[in-house]
Design brief:
Number of helices: 16
Radius of gyration: 22 Å
InterPro entries: GK-like_C_sf, GK_N_sf, MOFRL, MOFRL_assoc_dom, MOFRL_protein
CATH class of the largest domain: Alpha Beta
Number of domains: 2
Largest sheet: 6 strands, parallel
Structural class: alpha/beta
Protein name: DUF4147 domain-containing protein
Number of strands: 15
Shape: globular
GO molecular function: glycerate kinase activity
Helix content: 25-40%
Strand order of the largest sheet: 6-5-4-7-8-9
Amino acid sequence: MTSRVSIEDYDALASSEPRTVALDCLIAGIDAAHPRRVVFDALTLEGEHLTVTPVAGPSRTYDLETYGDVVVLGGGNAAGHVAAALEALLGDRIDDGVVVTDDPVETDRIDVMPGDHPVPSERGVEGTNAVLERAADAGPDDLVLGCLTGGGSALLPAPAENISLEALRKTTEALLASGASIDEFNAVRKHLSRLKGGNLARVADPATVVGLLVSDVAGDDPSVIASGPLSPDETTFADALDVLERYGITAPEPVLEHLRRGADGNERETPVDDDPAFDDVDCHVVASATTALEAAREVAVDRGYAPLVLSSSVRGEAREAAKTQVAIAEEIARTGTPAEPPAVVLSGGETTVTLAEDHGRGGPNQEFVLGGALELEVPAVVASVDTDGIDGTTDAAGAIVDQGTVSLDGPLDPLKARRALERNDAYPALEAANALVRMGATGTNVNDLRALVVERGIANR
């Protein structure tokens, strides 16, 4: 299948064989997780029988003849592409639907409405309200196909009563800057929403709901993907307040009042596992970081490199994660363990950045690469991207460097690089070194993807 990913200035970035291998691993991983491929890999239609085969767990078959309307609802970075692929597969079996995305595509039967990411917007609220209205119209004989992908938490805002969009935005921005994990972040978002934390399942009840999830979270927990609109939620209003306190976040007063009312039992809690809203809900993860890693691994093997997949669930501070992975690359180069060079060290997951008060521009993948470049002491390449094509709030997906990028005689002075990292200002430093990887919106989101390519060598500085 022809690649859907095009990297700007690919030839300049791929200036050596190891750099080429790193970039091609990233491209292959993103391609493999594109909904146009994923939907046709995970879903099959035989007559009127639709079978869903998730990345893990058993398949499930649904007889479309037993349902009234078939409706597609959801949101996320890749939701428009999932909707288009479902139309290609199911055709006029789909009656209608609504999805919200920041990467719209043309569809015939499903309304693809615009939203914004990573901070929610007014148009996202409009689209989410349309999703909720259509879900409420679904009857007991209807089938709802729920398309939920990475980015859905921001793209599907539905502020709880008495909470303004501006209050939700301020809370989101503070959480983004705090370094909170995605689980902690979502514990707050779920309790400020009319859709998240299983509330979409409540609204769609009593319809049969089949969730088709493209995971951008470590561990592929459906309750975390897009803040779990179709999944039981074990977190509470009290948990949400604890997160704000733990990270010293002063949220707008209406947000705090809502969470306090909930903690006191005066707001309806998100539904847990035994809630009847989930009696006819199945959620299937049809693509994840593992999907991307396996495709990247195949490229490494094809090019004659030993692949080492560390984990699909790397998390924590980006620059600290880089130190660990660079140390593994150095061990490979120096001792041949845990892989014999030449080798490619691959990982996925989601790292975070705790922003300085006077911070600059960048994102977790850019900080991973810049931090890795400062540590790198063997012939190797460090590349990392966000698979949706947008790292942080920049126009870059990530970056690529080698052992000569940050050096006294290289394009980026080590002192300037350290100062940039301290100020969370990786973007201009990497841009000056011609190290940024730009690819635009990719149509998918299975979180971060990293490739460290190690040649045979010894410490060189």
